[in-house]
Amino acid sequence: ETGVTQTPRHLVMGMTNKKSLKCEQHLGHNAMYWYKQSAKKPLELMFVYSLEERVENNSVPSRFSPECPNSSHLFLHLHTLQPEDSALYLCASSQDRTGLFTEAFFGQGTRLTVV
Amino acid sequence: GQQVMQIPQYQHVQEGEDFTTYCNSSTTLSNIQWYKQRPGGHPVFLIQLVKSGEVKKQKRLTFQFGEAKKNSSLHITATQTTDVGTYFCAGFGAESNYQLIWGAGTKLIIKP
Fold this sequence. Notes:
The structure holds two protein chains of two kinds. By secondary structure, chain A is mainly β. Helix content of chain A is about 0%, strand content about 55%. In chain A, the strands form two sheets. In chain A, strands 2, 4, 5, 6, 9, 10 and 11 form a seven-stranded mixed sheet that branches. A four-stranded antiparallel sheet of chain A has the order 1-3-8-7, with no helix packed on it. In chain A, β7 (about 65-70) and β8 form a beta hairpin. Chain A is globular. The mean pLDDT of chain A is about 90. In chain B, about 0% of the residues lie in helices and about 55% in strands. By secondary structure, chain B is mostly beta strands. In chain B, strands 2, 4, 5, 9, 10 and 11 form a six-stranded mixed sheet that branches. Chain B is globular, with a radius of gyration of 13 Å. Chain B contains no helices and eleven strands. In chain B, β6 and β7 form a beta hairpin. The chains are: A mainly beta, B mainly beta. Chains A and B meet through β10 of A and β4, β5 and β9 of B.
């Protein structure tokens, strides 16, 4: 148990569906992140939130839409995805976004399959 | 943009042999972090190195940060089956706009 919980663990969705991934952290951290992990690729940072404000959007297609209603919760809304979006989506949090306390605590991930 | 190159991509070892993975950054880093991801799991933080030339040990694991703060290594002595997984380095600094830049990982495989 890392203190970061993601749901669902597995998701299969059609290209016309709309779904949401949920992340909750119980660590009192100030920063939260969405990562995409595909086979044989480095971890791709998608979005960064610091104190509920989005500070980075790394050229992610608009079919991915993040939401951070408070410092403990992070959502990733998905719509009209493509098969190449199939991957493991990881949520992470860290105490701070900069400085020494940037160690990332990851959730267990959502394995997404787009059919 | 800033990149962190990690080699090798895979390393097959007999149990009891040593294992090393290397990371090189295109720019100077403020710090470098190391993570381990077990098969089917998520990345778990191992250690952070901050100082030039720093060496840290965790039991059989030795982590080094280069003098120029652009390269780092992880060495495991006498590997065990519990060491199986993928080891990632992630560099952090002003050049990357304070985002962790991840290496592609080195997968440690223990030969049967």
